Prior knowledge:
By secondary structure, the protein is of the alpha+beta class. Helices cover 28% and strands 17% of the residues. Helix 2 (48-59) packs antiparallel against helix 7 (133-150).
Amino acid sequence: MNDGNKGPLIERRRLGGWMPEKEQIAAAFRQDLAAKARERASRTPLSSVVCDLAQLVHGDAVLRMNLSRAIGEALEAGYELGYRSIDELFPIIDYITSYVPPFSETAPVMTPLNAVLDWPMCMPSGYAVFRDPAFNAQLRRVLTYWCSFLTGPHSRSHLNANEPDGWFCEKAQQKMGLSQFVCSPGTPYWGFTSWNDFFTRRFREGMRPIADPDNHKIIVSACEASPFNVRTDIKETDEFWIKEQPYSLLDMLTEGERELARRFVGGSIYQGYLSASNYHRWHAPVAGRVVKAYNVDGTYYSDAEAEGEDPGGLNDSQGYTTAVAARAIIVIDADDASIGEIACVFVGMAEVSSCQVTVRPGQRVAKGDELGFFQYGGSTFCLLFRAGVIGTFCPKPPYHDDVPPLHVNAHLATAR
C-alpha cells in the first residue's frame, strides 16, 4: 500500500513469511547488507561465478542497458536499494553467496537476494532482464555456488540457541514446532551437519500420519503448504502471463512432453505455497509407479507484469511461475486405474530453486513416501489431475493469506 497512490509502496503483501511486509524493514536490511558487502569487497575479490555474471552483463549491451535502467527506475520511484549501479550490485550478490539467514521473529529475510532485487525486477525494464535465458543460466550458477556453501559445515553459524537470532532459541522453537522434528538438543548444532540439513529436517515418526493409507480414493497433500488455488478445465496452452494467470499445461510440463500435457486437458489443478518455517520435503499423494521424473531449468526472479508494481510481487505471480520458473516434475501412475496419472510440479522461486528429486522412473511408491525436497526452503507446488478424476477438494475457496498450512500427508482430495 502507499499514501494516496503517490510515492513508493510502504508495505508489500508477502506469502509464507520469507521477507518482511514493511518496506522500511526491507530497505534497512538492504542498506546493512550493502555496507557489509562493501567492507568485504575492499579486502576480498569477487568469486569466479559472480565475476562471470558481471562479465555477462557488461558484455551484453541490451542486458546491461535494461538492468541499469531497472535500477534507475526503482531509485526514481523512491526505493532504497543499497546500490545505485550494476557495479555496486555485484559485490552484494557476492556477499550473499556466504550469507546464512538468522532467525527473526519480527523481521525475517529468508531470501536476501530476492530482497536486494525486489524492486528492479518489477520495474518496466526489469521484466526483460529476469527473463533473459543467459542471465538466468548465470544466476543458476551463482545460486548453486551459494547452495554448496549452505550444504557445508561453515553454514551452521546460527544453528544455536542464542537469543534473538539462533534457530534453536525459545521463540524459534515455538514458531517452528522444532519438537516435532528429528534433532538432538544438547549436541553441537543439534546434530545438523549444515544449514541445508537443518532446513530439510525430517518429522519424527508419527508426526504426519498418512490419511487413509489403504483407501486409494483419498489423495493426500504432497507438501506442508497453505492452499493457494484450485482450477478446473485446464487447457493445453493458455495465456499464463495475463492477470488471471490461467494454468498452461504445455508450458508447465514443457514442449517435449506434449503427449503428457494432452492427457491432463480438461482436468483440475491444486496449488499450495510453502512458508519459511514449513517442512520442505515432498511426498507421494497416491500409491503407484513413478513414470517420469525430470527437472526444468527456468527463471528465478521473473514475475508477471500483469500484476504490476503491487504488493504481490512474486507472491501474486505464483500461477505464472508454474510455466516459467525452475521446477521439478514427477508423474505417478496411480494404483487406482480410475485416477491414472498425477503430475506433481514442485516450483522453485527466487533463492528457493534447488529442486532435488530422489525417486526415479520405474520406482514404486506408497502413499506418503518421500519424492524429493527443496534445498534452502521451498516455494509452491501443484498437483495435476486428469478430467473427471476429482470428486471434491478438501480446501475450499476463498483462499486467504493467513490460513495455516495443510499438513503433508493430510487429506487433500477425494477421487470419484
